[in-house]
Amino acid sequence: MPRALASHGWHFDPAQRDAVLASLRARRTTLRACGCNYWVFEDPRNPGVILEFLEGPDVNSVVEARQAAGIGATDDAIFTEVEL
């Protein structure tokens, strides 16, 4: 099965940055334990605007990892890798 990738963009109050990052570190730990990779990128021009990426071995793994991390069902698309 092809690898799968989901992304989600959102923003938070920059005054809450430390708490948000602590929460995202905990999320990363859970997602990695599920066999998925997790990255977070922040726009340096707009503190508090982030993109998060969750990548796993297949769609089911990404869905299950989301559930384990408490992300739950979202309307965000899950993309699968295209073999070139």
Describe this structure in words.
The protein has 2 helices and 4 strands. It has one domain: Alpha-Beta Plaits, CATH 3.30.70. It is globular and about 40 Å long. A hairpin with a 6-residue loop joins strand 2 (37-42) and strand 3. The chain has 84 residues and is an alpha+beta fold.
Going across the major beta sheet, what is the strand order?
2-3-1-4
Helix percentage range: 25-40%
Largest sheet: 4 strands, antiparallel
Principal-axes geometry comes out as globular
Give the beta-strand count: 4
CATH T-level topology? Alpha-Beta Plaits
Please give a quick description of this structure.
The protein has 84 residues and is of the alpha+beta class. It is 32% helix and 30% strand.
Which keywords apply here?
84 residues; alpha+beta; Alpha-Beta Plaits; four-stranded antiparallel β-sheet; 4 strands; 32% helix; 30% strand
Topology:
Blueprint: E1 4-11, H1 17-33, E2 37-42, E3 49-56, H2 59-68, E4 78-80
Antiparallel strand pairs: 1-3, 1-4, 2-3
